[in-house]
Amino acid sequence: MEPQNSSSAEFSKRNFTLGVLNGIFFHFSEAFRDRHFVMPVFILILTDSKILVGVAAAIIASGWFLPQVFFTRWASSHQYKMPLYKLAAFIRIGAWVSITITVCFIGKGPGILVSSVFFLFLFIAYGTGGLGGIPFMDIVAKSITYEKRSVFFAMRFILGGAVAFIAGFLVKFILSTNSSIKFPNNFCILFFISAIFTTLALIAFFFVKEPPSELNHNHETSRDFFLHSIKRLSKDNNFIRFYIYRICTGFGLMSIPFIIPFGIEKLQIEKSDTGIYLAIASVLGILSNFIWQKVSKKFGNKTVLLNTALLFTLIFGILILIFFSPNLTIGNLWGLNISQVLFSLSAVLIIVTLFSDRMGYFNYLLDLAPDDSRPIYLGFMNSLVTPIMLLPLLGGFISGFSFKLLFMLSFLFSIAAFFIGRTLTNYKEVK
């Protein structure tokens, strides 16, 4: 990349700032509907079904990835991607407003109808997030240099984690059994706040100044475009190894939505305690992101991926220990038994691990993708991992049979992810 002049440096600084602001608003909004703490509790109250917890988790995880491959050719043939981002943004805003209204109608209409409408808009909200994924990542890659990307994502996660910490206590207060706000009004308030800050996040990115992309000006048909793309990607051995790594970590992600239901069902954890776990995890997430940013900058994003696999292994190793821990009380103040302590440790490590996973995945994917084929790499990889993101559906069925089996599967695949990750190219050394 050419050295920046003063105007381009100012341009990059503007986009950097707006991108970080976008991340802060998103983290705050997501805390009130958090997929790992808040959403499972809401689904359990609404439906009393762990399978539907898995359905919601699959929608949330796969929606961002699913539609991207269908827009790679469009993105590759247009210099500016912002129009696609704005289209997705307006649909998402409408979906989250509709979700909030739907939640407020719980108990005022047929339960099956309200639940169906909720899941429909949930799918639209996260599916159109995927529609905006390609333009977002491409604009970031075009306007923020390789050297600054790790800092960019770290700042989004660190500052976003700080506001999520505050949100955690609000969630604790709103969901507390001592609160005067009862179901469904408590969740209606949570989703309303989430919708407001989602809107602010999306609109903030509208003001990013997008540089034009270089086009290859070929006139191949859609069929030829996909065939040539698949042929190119199939010859990239590191792309294939990275995909296999993602499959293995997907089995770790499969179990994450069921950790809180496991604590509530088996260990008598209070539903409102999810807010405390969220707050503590957010602080640890902030601290860990300082580490991940430095690791990425000094050792490369491959090392971040390896640490992600190790953290997944640690979380599920701790959860497996719970099944063998004695039911002894620790101290006179806490009133917690060993199982609850181990559970709390695993719960607060969730966000730390997910921050590492997200930073490592997106940064490494940008490292992996050549400049002239970035939309192809982004679109195909993000769409190929869609079946992996549907694994929480399987997790829902397994958890109904055995939480121990579910956590053991995730533990074994996390170990496999570490060894596969060791075979990946370290782009820090290459560059």
Structural description of this entry:
Strand 1 (329-330) and strand 2 (336-337) form a beta hairpin. With 431 residues, the protein is an all-alpha fold. It has one domain (9-209, 220-430): MFS general substrate transporter like domains (Growth Hormone, Chain: A, Up-down Bundle), CATH 1.20.1250.20. It is globular and about 60 Å long. It has a two-stranded antiparallel ribbon. The chain has helices spanning 6-31, 38-47, 50-63, 72-76, 82-104, 111-131, 133-143, 146-175, 185-206, 222-234, 237-255, 259-267, 273-299, 301-322, 338-368, 374-384, 386-389, 391-401, 403-421, 427-430; strands spanning 329-330, 336-337. It contains 20 helices and two strands. The longest helix has 31 residues, at 338-368. Helix content is 77%, strand content 1%.
Show the helix and strand layout.
Layout: H1 6-31, H2 38-47, H3 50-63, H4 72-76, H5 82-104, H6 111-131, H7 133-143, H8 146-175, H9 185-206, H10 222-234, H11 237-255, H12 259-267, H13 273-299, H14 301-322, E1 329-330, E2 336-337, H15 338-368, H16 374-384, H17 386-389, H18 391-401, H19 403-421, H20 427-430
Helix pairs in contact: 1-8, 1-9, 2-3, 3-6, 3-18, 5-6, 5-9, 7-16, 8-13, 8-15, 11-18, 11-19, 12-15, 13-14, 13-15, 14-15, 14-19, 18-19
Q: What is the number of beta strands?
A: 2
Provide the CATH superfamily.
MFS general substrate transporter like domains
Structural class: mainly alpha
Which residues form runs of ≥5 with pLDDT under 50? Answer: 1-7
Give a quick account of the main beta sheet: strands, pairing sense, barrel closure: 2 strands, antiparallel
| Run of helices and strands | HHHHHHHHHHHHHHEEHHHHHH
Whole-number average pLDDT? 82
Rounded to an integer in angstroms, the radius of gyration calculated over CA atoms is: 21 Å
Beta-strand percentage range: under 5%
